[in-house]
């Protein structure tokens, strides 16, 4: 009898014991749903996540862009007009989808067709895009090594160390604020803010080694700054800082992604697991808890409050039920010379049918009284 044959019964028993030791969700607790290429996801490495206003989610991967519409995955690649390279950033602005890639420039999906911008054929300062931020009908574009660009109505403005107070051209992440300003994380020079009037201010992080900013997220009035040396939390009104690291419960100092939950809790992604911060308490999630991989590469919270976790080499995980989005439908008001639902006049028949069709589709039509078709909408108001 070989050594493996003698050990086989013991190994089988050990496997059974370990399966019982694996943590399982408590009663009433949500569990992780794993998503990979077998489900329609385009690639296993997730670089970016973007929830949409319609309740879907875009996932930028090493092979292109995948979109969850609530029922299935739809994917786009270079063959569809998408920029080549890893999809490093995705943003939505009033139904327009912007995509930044690592080496393939910028892409725009508008009206079902793609438009590409390259540094070689447009004012885009670099094909290496790290983050995107829609703002006031325009788009901020962070690049790796060539500063910051702003695109609006086909007009470009570029900010670099040479022509502005930007402390570095090596940018990593962007986030806006309620005052119309923009916060910029850099890879080599910490954090900088540009207000709505165009004034710049650099912020010195509490740890001299926290110069490589990886992600930014708001928690109320606090700005959470992810770095390769932990989390730094800034109160912009007082300028005060506090920090989070392994001593406070993080699984690693290398923070890769941040996301805020509606109830004020914070997700902190690292290269060794995912932490859920809740008023000073930390809960850690790893592969043993249902994640596809311990290296978290992207985080997002969608309109339904579900948490999406992108991993570096094992696809996606979603916390909660992966159900179609529930988007509230607005009421429909019929403003015309309709004489009401009791009218039997032939010219009102189109409104009867329209009201019936609306009800069948789940809408509630309303009869607006006092409307005269001979008056303008302004006069009727």
Task: Summarize this structure as a short list of keywords or feature phrases.
single chain; 381 residues; mainly beta; Methylamine Dehydrogenase, Chain H; 2 domains; 4-stranded antiparallel β-sheet; 3 helices; 9% helix; globular; disordered N terminus; disordered C terminus
Mean pLDDT: 85
Radius of gyration (Å): 26 Å
CATH hierarchy class name of the largest domain: Mainly Beta
In total, the number of domains comes to: 2
Helical run tally: 3
Reported for the largest beta sheet, the result is: 4 strands, antiparallel
- What CATH calls the topology of the largest domain is Methylamine Dehydrogenase, Chain H
Number of strands: 30
- CATH H level of the largest domain: which superfamily? YVTN repeat-like/Quinoprotein amine dehydrogenase
Helix amount: under 10%
Which structural class is indicated by helix and strand composition? mainly beta
Please state roughly what percent of the residues sit in beta strands, choosing from under 5%, 5-15%, 15-25%, 25-35%, 35-45% or over 45%: 35-45%
Low-confidence stretches: 1-28, 373-381
Straight-line distance between termini? 93 Å
* Strand order in the largest sheet: 1-28-27-26
- Please state the overall shape, judged from the principal axes of the Cα atoms: globular
**What would you call the quaternary organization?**
single chain
Per CATH, which architecture of the largest domain?
A: 7 Propeller
């Amino acid at each position: 009898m070989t050594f493996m044959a003698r050990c086989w019964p013991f190994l089988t028993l050990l496997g059974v014991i370990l399966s019982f030791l694996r943590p399982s969700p408590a009663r009433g607790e949500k569990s992780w749903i794993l998503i990979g290429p077998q489900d329609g996801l385009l690639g296993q490495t997730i670089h970016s996540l973007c929830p949409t206003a319609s309740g879907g989610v875009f996932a930028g991967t090493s092979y292109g862009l995948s979109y969850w519409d609530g029922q299935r995955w739809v994917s786009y690649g270079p063959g569809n007009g998408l920029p080549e390279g890893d999809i490093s950033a995705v943003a939505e602005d009033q139904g327009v989808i912007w995509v930044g890639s690592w080496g393939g420039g910028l892409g725009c999906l508008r009206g079902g067709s793609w438009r590409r911008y390259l540094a070689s054929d447009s004012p885009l300062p670099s094909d290496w895009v790290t983050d995107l931020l829609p703002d006031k009908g325009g788009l901020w574009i962070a690049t790796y090594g060539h500063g910051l660009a702003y695109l609006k109505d086909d007009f470009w403005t570029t900010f670099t160390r040479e022509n502005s107070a930007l402390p570095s051209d090596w940018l990593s992440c962007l986030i806006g604020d309620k005052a119309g300003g923009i916060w910029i994380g850099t890879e080599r020079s910490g954090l900088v803010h540009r207000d709505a009037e165009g004034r710049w201010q650099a912020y010195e992080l509490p740890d001299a080694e926290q110069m490589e900013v990886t992600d930014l997220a708001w928690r109320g009035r606090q700005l959470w700054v992810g770095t390769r040396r932990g989390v730094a939390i800034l109160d912009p009104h007082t300028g005060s800082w506090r920090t989070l690291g392994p001593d406070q419960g993080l699984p690693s100092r290398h923070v890769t992604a941040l996301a805020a939950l509606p109830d004020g809790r914070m997700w902190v992604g690292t290269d060794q697991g995912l932490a859920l911060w809740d008023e000073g308490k930390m809960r850690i999630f790893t592969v043993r808890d249902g994640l596809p991989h311990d290296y978290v590469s992207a985080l997002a919270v969608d309109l339904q409050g579900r948490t999406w976790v992108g991993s570096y080499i094992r696809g996606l995980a979603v916390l909660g039920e992966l159900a179609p989005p529930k988007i509230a439908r607005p009421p429909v008001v019929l403003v015309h010379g309709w004489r009401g639902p009791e009218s039997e006049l032939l010219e009102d028949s189109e409104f009867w049918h329209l009201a019936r069709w609306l009800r069948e589709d789940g809408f509630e039509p309303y009869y607006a009284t006092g409307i005269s078709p001979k008056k303008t909408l302004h006069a009727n108001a």
